[in-house]
Write a structure and sequence with these properties.
The chain is α/β, with parallel strands linked by helices and 210 residues long. The protein has a single domain, classed as Rossmann fold (3-Layer(aba) Sandwich), CATH 3.40.50.150. The chain is built from 8 helices and 7 strands. It has a 7-stranded mixed beta sheet, sandwiched between helices. The protein starts with a helix and ends with a strand. The structure holds S-adenosylmethionine. The site of S-adenosylmethionine has 21 residues, from helix 2, helix 4 and strand 4.
Length: 210
């Protein structure tokens, strides 16, 4: 059953300790990821897309979909007027699915959480849905996204409450206080998959880089 498979894969990903384990879990899941997430009522891509469209002018480029997975968001970004988008993900299997959709200008198999091989100020906007969560990427992944986002650009991301309470909120507040960015929007906490038993909520954030 799709929901059982989905629950198992995501639970394993949440519990993963090493990036290569996360990549392997998603490699194995990539074939049914889209249908499983659809069945679970997965909300992060829709909410991130709405936030991005509210804060970044149509046609802003280039954008980076960080933790793009199979490219759910890339498909919709093109339709809504952002045709120049690159995908980054740690899982080659997920990137292969994204590539097959033909919606990204470039695909990068890279791990967030450490240095990224992109120039300072490279992107007009960055979107990262369902990536800052248990077993995936923690607050240590945020600084590189800020570095590669140009001043005036926005970073739209979701943050699971577990991470939020374990230092993410404090880090965002500190970055605001030092003038590195402004938090221009924060959603109320919401369930990313209403059909799932893991009910730890997440929030959507929009950060404008100074
Ligand atoms: C829940 S999926 C979300 C995918 C896509 N953003 C979406 O909303 O459908 C999480 C994605 O993050 C990727 N991921 C996990 N850890 C990562 C890391 N350290 N660096 C880059 N990608 C990572 C996984 O391979 C997976 O594709």
């Amino acid at each position: 059953m799709a929901d059982d498979k989905h629950s198992g894969a995501l639970s394993a990903a949440y519990a993963a300790k090493r990036p290569e384990d996360v990549a392997a879990i998603y490699d194995n899941w990539s074939e049914t990821y889209d249908s499983d997430m659809s069945a679970a009522g997965y909300r992060h891509p829709t909410i991130c897309l709405a936030l991005l469209a509210r804060h970044l002018p149509r046609g802003a480029e280039p954008l980076l979909d960080a933790g793009a997975g199979t490219g759910l968001i890339g498909e919709w970004l093109i339709i809504t007027g952002y045709p120049n988008v690159e995908a980054l993900d740690i899982s080659q299997g997920m990137l292969d699915k994204a590539a097959a959709k033909g919606v990204y200008k470039a695909l990068h198999r890279l791990a967030m959480g450490g240095p990224l091989p992109f120039a300072d100020n490279a992107y007009a906007g960055i979107i990262s849905a369902g990536v800052f969560t248990s077993g995936h990427v923690g607050v240590e992944g945020l600084d590189e996204l800020i570095r590669i986002c140009r001043p005036g650009g926005v970073i739209v991301l979701t943050v699971k409450n577990t991470l939020w309470l374990a230092g993410f909120a404090e880090r965002v507040a500190a970055l605001e206080a030092e003038g590195t960015l402004a938090r221009i929007e924060e959603t109320p906490p919401y369930a990313s998959m209403p059909g799932e038993s893991d009910t730890v909520p997440s929030r959507g954030l929009v950060l404008r880089v100074s």
